[in-house]
Design goal:
single chain; 7 helices; 73% helix
Length: 171
Amino acid sequence: MKKDMLAFIDEKHKFLENSMQEHYRHYKTVVDIGLPLMLVNKLFNEKKDRIFVPKYNISSSEFDVLMTILSHGKEMSPTVLSENMIFSSGGMTKLLKKLEDKKLIRRIPSKKDKRSLLVALSQKGKKLAIDAFGDIVKINMEVLSKLQENEQTMLSDLLKKLLVELSESQD
């Protein structure tokens, strides 16, 4: 697999060099940094799904919903939940229905607005989120153990710098 990924990146370089020579210098950065970032994320999510689906019968998106509610510490409106999600909220209603059917969340009437329902974790959902998070920690430790401690620190600092820059440019 490792050689496949590196060959994939190499293939993209060759394409850019041959097809877009005048822009290659600028596009090279996208292939050198952007593409590996996307591939790492893709492979990480595939690793998570290989655990989540058979072990917990949930998807990564369902896990993200559970963890968002857990980290929030109390029930949330679907709107607030969507705003606090890492992924896009396009299928939030569908996700919430699946989680409710699995008895991992419950919908409770809002005290402020009786017409709206808040989303809360059930005990089963809380336990599952905590257990699944433990598996994510193991995956991260396994992946990051390939880097030396100073490389982990450098990667962390660089990613945080990019996150700050990207989030500030969103404002």
